[in-house]
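Problem: given the chain below (269 residues), write out its structure.
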Amino acid sequence: MNGSFSWYPGHIAKAKRQFSERWMPLLDLIIEVVDARLPITSCLVNRELIAGKPHFPVYNKADVADLKALAKISKDAIVIEARRNTSTKKALEKRVLQLGAPCIEALRLQGRQRKLRVGICGLPNVGKSTLINALLGKAKTKTGDKPGVTRQMQFVGSPSLAFDLLDSPGLLPLSFEPEGALKLALVGVLPQERFAEEVLAIALLALLEARGIAGLDVIAKRPFTQLLRSFQAGQFGLFCLDDSGLWENVRTRLAEEGHGFSPNKAEQA
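Solution.
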């Protein structure tokens, strides 16, 4: 495999600058939202963005993730399904207050009293706004199932919550290595339209084959967009695409089909 994948919309470049220069100095700690199906690949590549701030990851979309595989990669993971998990608020509030205790004490010694300011960060479409709405108990931020819904940064809060939250657009590196980009497209973090459908289809069917899904000949005849949505919704079972054993079948099938490979459409032309 060679080459790299780039998808860097203008609003994300602007958000990255604003986050680093304007908002980071105001934050006390960071919650990084990660897709539980990609516990390694969907972590922020630009670690310098959150350097120097207390932070911890939260693995979202647990309802469609292979949690046994996730546990092998991250043993102490906080795993949630922000859309449905009623225990999200209590568990995360406890962790935030534990991690933010030194900041609260420092503010007290300075004679200052305010809520902690917590940044919610991560790649596009990992569930940042959905997590905020779950913590607040109401829909205060816009959500969607495609990357790029959140365009502006804003602090939001609730009288019932012990800290304020900064909602931010997805933060992306300038480029991804091809395998990582392909994984991110399969779960909807990167837009599928930027990839060759043939490559996505081969990879998706290889994942289903590795999992032992029956009737692949019939499944393969379904419209690809419908097939991908079914996969992303968990209708073919629970997956962790960062499971090296599972992903090895994708590499094998792509190589057999002559994709050695750069998934970006522009690079395949």
